[in-house]
Amino acid sequence: MTILSNGHLWKHTEFIENKNFTFNRNKILDSLSKKDIDDAYLSISKWENYSPTPLIELNKLSKELNLNKIFYKDESKRFDLKSFKALGGAYAVEKVSKDYKEIIVSTATAGNHGRSVAWGARRLGLKCKIFISEFVSDARGQAMADLGADVIKVKGNYENSLIECIKRSTENNWQIVQDVAWKNYITVPKYTMAGYTVMMKEVADYIDRTKISHIILQAGVGGMAGAMIAGVARYLKNTPVIIVVEPDSAACVLESIKTGKIEKIDIKRESLMGGMSCGEVSLVPWEILKNSVQYCISLPDDDIANTMKLLGNASFSNEKIIAGENSAPGVISLITSCEDEKIKEKMQLNKDSNVLLVGCEGDTDEEMYQKLINK
Ligand SMILES: Cc1ncc(COP(=O)(O)O)c(C=O)c1O
Q: Which of 70, 104, 232, 279 has the fewest Cβ atoms nearer than 10 Å?
């Protein structure tokens, strides 16, 4: 009996095709420029302890799914922060403080972005104020305090923590380093996305002449997905099929792709995929995502823990992979797509496919990770 044929039914909630799909390299690089992307790689690749994260082949899974290769970009090895987020916030801190060495930086966060900002501030000897909602775990708050940040807990959800961050930062003249863009606040979120594009540069360097045929990208506010697509436009010669995956309780990209305009989701239940539980796509990524994403998939939380366990016990690859909650949906959506013949054919997933998945994080919350894999 194979891993996937043990009677378990892998499921997605919704699958849609983008009727406005058209991949335009130049238009994508108008939103996040070649210079922004190249500057980020030049800076980040010089940071102490920088090295590309591994690109692991899920060889056992590709065999079961009858695909040529599945590459898993393992961001659990990103510096000592265990998440791709380390590339974004910390790089934005470096950019905003370039000519202002005495500034205090601030941010609102669900966890990983704040850790990156705190870590970036510590690297440069800057003070840092982090606003978290009451729903952010104590372990995540402590991790930022351990990096020297002043952590401020705010009643309510992420949006309340952002409102408080903006209010206090305006009063005190702190420089906000947010990964979400809004009207008149575009430059800093662009820096965070430019930082994330380093992942695609590393993938392009590693795969050499192998052609990636499909990329599955997790989305919260869409920054990571938008950045990876900008990286595709900058570094890859071919255009892979691009798929976005989200929690079904917060599928803000999927709903926006459906109507062709930004739709706000009223989140009724917080997903286990915490970093992806976002109600509205951010402005800069939307400009990239709205035409270049070909398919969107939404998922329930049901298979997250099991997938983390299967990655962790080397069921999909020769080595064990520590994958957090937000790393599992790429794998799950690939499996559900391959198990549905119609979707598999539509997406042209076949024996020649080389699929790229982003393992965005490791055990960034160790307690939660242990709880889930031992479920
Ligand atoms: C830890 C974490 N946070 C957040 C996100 C979402 O990123 P973004 O909000 O840029 O779409 C992801 C992955 O999609 C993630 O792994």
A: 104
